[in-house]
Design brief:
- By secondary structure, the protein is α+β, with helices and mostly antiparallel strands.
- The chain contains 7 helices and 7 strands, in the order ααβββαβββαβααα.
- Helix content is about 45%, strand content about 15%.
- Strand 4 and strand 5 form a beta hairpin.
- Helix 1 runs antiparallel to helix 2 and helix 5 packs parallel to helix 7.
- The protein starts with 15 loop residues before the first helix and ends with a helix.
């Protein structure tokens, strides 16, 4: 004799697509209702794609390696020690570190770059195989004050820097590693970070500030060699200038 097993009913709300299919089958839809339900269906698909995107990206982020600053920047420390003013993780090292984990979870990425005057903006587009995407943009000047760099080198450096930072932003990466002014020298001067230098230079450029006069006032040879102790003072001066122009 076979025992009668209880029927297990799955309690869940029908999806918009299931509602649409049932209504079509029963002939209960007019044109207006069909449009409303179709819009609900698309919104539901977008929501599911976004949810899957976020879940997969969380998996990627948990598996990403540390990104270490290994390459010396072209600016020397003002201390005269010959040590570089800062270190950074070059794009050619960041990309191989993140490409594998991204591909494993169905992600790909690309960049779109635009130049407006002396400001270059790189937008990193992170796309999942389900169609959802996320964008992050980073802007920086193409006229770096580094005297030893040609115009092409300055442009290439700005492009690579903006691409790297936009990729790190969209993935939530943080670079770690060597101190910006070369590890504990007795005559060491702590300069602002490369990111802070780009921030101040971009801000000053957008306000048409006399850069030479500004650097002389802050007592630095370039934005990269502004002492960390004067960073807030520099920001306050630019904020005041912006307020005067408003």
């Amino acid at each position: 004799m076979t025992a009668n097993l209880p029927t297990v009913r799955e309690d869940r709300q029908p999806t918009p697509m299931e509602i649409l299919a049932g209504a079509v089958t029963e002939g209960k839809l007019d044109a207006g209702a069909l449009q409303v339900i179709a819009e609900l269906a698309w919104k539901d698909q977008d929501r599911q794609a976004r949810r899957e995107f976020n879940r997969r990206l969380a998996v990627v982020r948990r598996g990403l390696p540390e990104i270490k600053k290994t390459k010396a920047g072209p600016i020397l420390a003002k201390s005269g020690s010959g040590a570089p003013a800062y270190f950074y993780a070059p794009l050619e090292e960041v990309e191989p570190a993140v490409r594998g984990p991204l591909l494993d979870e169905g992600f790909s990425y690309s960049w779109d770059t635009q130049v407006d005057g002396t400001i270059l903006t790189a937008t990193c587009v992170l796309v999942h195989e389900n169609g959802h995407e996320m964008r992050s943009s980073f802007s920086c000047p193409t006229d770096s004050p580094a005297p030893q760099m040609s115009g092409q080198q300055k442009y290439g450096g700005a492009r690579s820097y903006a691409m790297r930072k936009s990729l790190e932003q969209v993935l939530g990466l943080v670079e770690i590693g060597v101190d910006n002014d070369g590890a504990g020298l007795p005559d060491q001067v702590d300069f602002i970070t490369q990111e802070q230098a780009v921030e101040l230079e971009t801000w000053a450029t957008s306000l048409n500030v006399d850069v030479k006069g500004f650097l002389a006032w802050i007592r630095a040879d370039s934005f990269e060699t502004i002492p960390a102790s004067r960073y807030e003072r520099a920001k306050a001066a630019l904020a005041k200038k912006q307020g005067q122009q408003s």
